Please model this.
Amino acid sequence: MGKKARNKKVDDSISAVEGGWEFTNEVAKHFDAHVRKSIPLYEEAQRMTVDMSEWFINNGSTVYDIGSSTGETISRLQKKHAFKENVRFIGIDNSDMMVKEARKKVSANNVHFSCCDLRQIILEEADLVVSLFTLQFLSVPERMKVLRGVYECLRSGGALIMAEKLLAEEGRFDDMWVELYWDFKKRQGLTDDQILYKARSIRGVLRPITLTENIRLLRDSGFNSIDVFLKWYNFAGILAIKTTSSLIKFTGYEAVAGAVDGTASENKFILKDKHASE
Model:
């Protein structure tokens, strides 16, 4: 009775318990509509992911979507590359309800969805791994373990496309970004109460970190060619390619690596104006 009494509506069709957000059957059934109200530029992030995939998916490629939810990304990728031969798409999610919805959405022979713990997966050799708004639910040590596994599975020249909710680099920006994010949600038709209840439901469940910290994790995992392809206040998309380049470069930042194999000679990140020398 007590637990039921604490359920609050976070959308017209979805309710959640304070500090207990889960991808339940109710969430899975209404996820595609809810995510568009919750994540700014969601459609653009999906479109950009599919567009970038053209550089990495070829005949015989294996593609993973970590945190595949209802299979939206894999559905788009599979359609984009349907003319290529022997391409495999594998979606992984830890919610059985999400996997069931994904299987309803995509039933192609070269698509497989698996329900398993993201922290325990062992990936086969792949050309592209996608992870959109998923790692933000893991602790930093857990993210590092997943990212190292992704790096190890990728062939040389393969890539990780990821998108995450962020903490701002400074507190003054965080207040601005959060308020602007709430304004976005209101424009999508969510009420003040629904926005507040959703924020309370993900306390301790969603664990965002800064853009710099995300890039540092990628670097420490082995990636040495990194750039930001999308940024909206407290959300960002990052492309990380497995290369033999000795210098890590990405928008607005520069990080110095050591040997050609990508090992870092120092752990310090240098914030710099990329136009300063122009």
User: Anything to note?
Assistant: The longest strand covers residues 154-167. The chain has nine helices and 13 strands. The chain has one domain: 18-177+206-245. The radius of gyration is 19 Å.
